[in-house]
Specification:
Chain lengths: 320, 490
């Protein structure tokens, strides 16, 4: 459906058309998204997520490489490709003086949709997104959440094949996030391919079927969310313990064991809170060892790894 | 050749236009060569080549004076030049016979009655007929003239003088407007240009779709602009100003000719109307367009727009058209009312001039909008926006004359009393005027108050004014599109 091949992009700064500076944003970025996927695009700030999205939707031109939508290079068939894409930017820009109905009419005009059709689809979308009661109010009086929902309506008006959302939940309250998630899941069930970038990893975990991790303009990992979850299980987990009588010699003994490491030790009055990193099968060994050395265990709480751990590991910000 | 082919390949869409412009360039050179080879394009030089001699200055009371040219008697030359004076004022009537007029090189005799002495670029040609109302001052004409010799006698103080005079004479039917021939060349060039443009448009993908989107965007800009409080205030201000000026200019045609408030004719009033219209309308055009891109960037609406299936070029053209309409529609209405009041109080200007005043006014607004777009695209802050906008308006509407004075002074033209009538200064001012859209507007309207474009406008031919009128908006549009594409490329 969507394929990026060796996409290279440098940001240039101009003054009256003269180049005054250049910064690399995308470095031979390649990945692909199949029809019907919900593709989560992860990466730390400045990794190139928004730049990638801007290149796909045609706001920016890439310097080299190619972006293909259903096999068509968007450089060659830019207008045709734009008709297949719906785009929700992170910073929603809408004209404050217009009502949602007028906004939809304006943006719908770029797809040469007839007024009747815009009205019909617009009404449905506004209703679905909970804006039907505000359809004749000026956008300037809208909250951020309402603006996002209206922008989403705009991006869906021409019934695109791919919906691209840049940080869709930023600035939304929990209720807004939940509502948006429901809408996206419904759209995906109807066959819409969705690509979303986010730094809220739980959001990706909740919605996405596939994940791509980008760092310094390069894709460092692409997999199905199920595959990543499987890997998470294989990797070390964290174990939080509240103990009494824990000494340095106990710590040395734990650290000596292959696959176990004490990563945090906090004194809590008579008790000590320990945070260990270890393979799941070594939990019994840890408890046995501590008990045999006279350490009293008051609580034990395993912490399962999340997508965040994978993400941090891949982008080099992990602890190990 | 390979490089040229590569160039054509890279610009395949524009290839027909590039070829058309190349052909037009060749035709333009042929046009110039045609005039240079078939006519004498510097009549003043021939006139300056005449010699005056007194053949027999001896003791006798009879003297023989001789005026002679380098050419042979009966030689025929087709002169091409500008009528420096109005033929209406050069017809021989109500004069005293017997006097020798040195500047015209002849003796006033009765047979001159009803004839016209034309002044073509300083060259004097006697036409055997009354050309009053046939040709007008500043028109560029071609004259088929013969060198004739005749002898007259006259009394010069105590002496009887026999004047053996050579002079250039022509029949009325031997005089034509240069435009009669120019139109063939210009017509061919325009046809080739139109054909090249047509083929180009045919090559363009999604043309109809993009034209629809341009119109869609233009309508949106127009509606938003007309609803903005800035435009309501500006529109009201400049509309009232234009209407008021129209009425005043009509009234001034009835003023005392001795006062500085006197306006000579309807056509002169129209030219002054052009200046005042430009003065306020250019400010409005700059004001509405100056922050168009900056504001859209700030509010993130530009990204929303760029993600739609519309090309960068169409965005610039659509916005330019829309903002031109925002200023142009109220300006057009105000111009019409102003004209009505002007005509009500004074003379009716030439109809072609009125049409040019209205139509070229819209072109001028489009030019100012696209000119300002170049700065609006590059603006990085609100301060930049205000400085660029105000700077452009001050340059074109206020300080332009000071700039012309400075350049005149720098190249050694003396700016003493009456310097504005100095031909050297006028030529410089006219040429520099082509770099100011306001002056181009005035020149073009002034040109169309005449019956032909073969007019000398202070050293520049009429066709050059029309070319400037076309090139200004096209150049500004191209520059703003290029800058916009570069900026948006990231």
């Amino acid at each position: 459906m969507l394929e990026l091949k060796d996409v290279q992009k440098d940001y240039r700064t101009y003054r009256f058309g003269r180049e005054t500076g250049r910064i690399n944003a995308l470095n031979k970025l390649s990945f692909s998204v199949d029809r019907g996927q919900v593709f989560g695009f992860l990466g730390p700030n400045g990794a190139g997520k928004t730049t990638t999205i801007k290149c796909i939707v045609g706001i920016l031109n890439c310097d080299s490489g190619s972006i293909l939508i259903e096999g068509d290079d968007i450089e060659e068939k830019r207008l045709h490709s734009k008709n297949k894409i719906g785009f929700l930017p992170e910073q929603v820009g809408l004209y404050g003086g217009l009502t949602p109905t007028e906004t939809l009419k304006y943006y719908g005009g770029f797809y040469e949709l007839e007024n009747g059709l815009i009205k019909e689809r617009g009404k449905d979308l506004l209703q679905k997104l909970g804006l039907d009661k505000d359809s004749e109010r000026q956008v300037s009086g809208f909250s951020l959440g309402m603006r996002k929902r209206l922008a989403l309506a705009v991006s869906l008006l021409h019934e695109p094949e791919i919906l691209i959302l840049d940080e869709p939940t930023s600035g939304l309250d929990p209720r807004g996030v939940k509502a948006l998630r429901a809408v996206l899941q419904e759209l995906n069930e109807k066959g819409l391919t969705i690509i979303l970038s986010s730094h809220v990893l739980s959001e990706i975990q909740e919605i996405c079927t596939h994940v791509g991790i980008i760092d310094k303009g390069k894709l460092i990992r692409q997999d199905a969310i199920a595959g990543i979850r499987k890997e998470v299980k294989k990797t070390a987990i964290k174990l939080s313990l509240r103990v009494r009588g824990f000494s340095d010699s106990n710590k040395k003994q734990l650290n000596k064991k292959r696959g176990v490491s004490v990563i945090e030790e906090t004194e809590l009055g008579k008790h000590t809170r320990l945070l260990l990193k270890l393979k799941e099968n070594l939990i019994p060994w840890v408890t046995d060892t501590l008990v045999s050395k006279g350490v009293k265990i008051f609580s034990i709480e395993p912490q399962t790894n999340s997508l965040e751990d994978v993400f941090l590991k891949e982008t080099g910000d992990g602890n190990d | 050749m390979t490089e040229f082919n590569d160039f054509l390949k890279r610009h395949e869409t524009w290839r027909p236009l590039i070829i058309a412009l190349s052909i037009i360039f060749i035709i333009a050179i042929s046009h110039k060569i045609y005039w240079e080879t078939t006519t004498e394009t510097n009549p003043g030089e021939i006139w300056d080549g005449q010699t005056f001699s007194i053949v027999d200055p001896g003791e006798s009371e009879n003297q023989i004076w001789r005026i002679k040219f380098e050419q042979e008697v009966n030689d025929e030359i087709i002169f091409k030049g500008v009528l420096e004076t109005s033929p209406r004022n050069e017809v021989y009537q109500n004069f005293t016979t017997g006097g020798f007029i040195e500047s015209e090189g002849l003796v006033y005799t009765e047979d001159l009655y009803g004839k016209t002495m034309l002044n073509v670029d300083g060259m004097r040609i006697l036409v055997n007929g009354n050309l009053s109302g046939e040709f007008f001052e500043s028109e560029i004409v071609t004259i088929r003239a013969h060198l004739v010799e005749n002898t007259t006698t006259f009394q010069n103080g105590p002496n009887d003088v026999t004047l053996i005079r050579e002079g250039w004479e022509a029949e009325p039917e031997d005089i034509q407007l240069a435009s009669d021939t120019d139109y063939y060349f210009f017509g061919t060039e325009v046809l080739i240009l139109l054909f090249g443009t047509y083929l180009c448009l045919k090559n363009m993908k999604h043309l109809r779709n993009q034209l629809n989107l341009i119109w869609h965007l233009a309508k949106f800009e127009f509606n938003s602009g007309m609803r903005s409080s800035r435009m309501v205030i500006l529109g009201l201000f400049f509309s009232l100003f234009i209407i008021g000026i129209g009425w005043v200019l009509g009234d001034m045609q009835d003023a005392d000719p001795e006062t500085s408030f006197f306006v000579e004719s309807g056509n002169h009033a129209l030219l002054q109307f052009c200046f005042f219209t430009f003065f306020v309308v250019s400010l409005a055009a700059i004001a509405v367009s100056v922050d168009s891109f900056h504001k859209e960037r700030q509010t993130n609406t530009l990204n929303m727009l760029l993600a739609r299936p519309i090309t960068r070029e169409s965005i610039v053209i659509g916005k330019a058209l829309g903002l031109t309409m925002v200023v142009g529609v109220p300006a057009f209405v105000a111009q019409l009312i102003g004209l009505y009041l002007m005509i009500l109080e004074g003379d009716i200007p030439a109809i072609s001039g009125i049409l040019a005043f209205l139509l070229f006014g819209q072109i001028m607004i489009f030019t100012m909008v696209t000119f300002q777009f170049c700065f609006a695209v590059a603006a990085r802050s609100g301060t930049d926006v205000v400085i660029y906008g105000l700077g452009a308006w001050l340059l074109f509407a206020i300080v332009w004359n000071l700039l012309v004075y400075a350049i005149s002074f720098a190249i050694g033209i003396e700016l003493t009393e009456g310097f504005e009538t100095n031909p050297e200064y006028q030529t410089l001012a006219s040429h520099l005027g082509l770099f100011n859209p306001g002056y181009v507007y005035q020149f073009a309207v002034g040109l169309l108050t005449h019956r032909t474009i073969a007019i000398d406008m202070g050293g520049i031919p009429g066709w050059l004014v029309l070319l400037a009128l076309v090139l200004w908006p096209l150049t500004c549009l191209r520059a703003s599109t290029w800058l916009f594409k570069r900026e948006m490329k990231g």
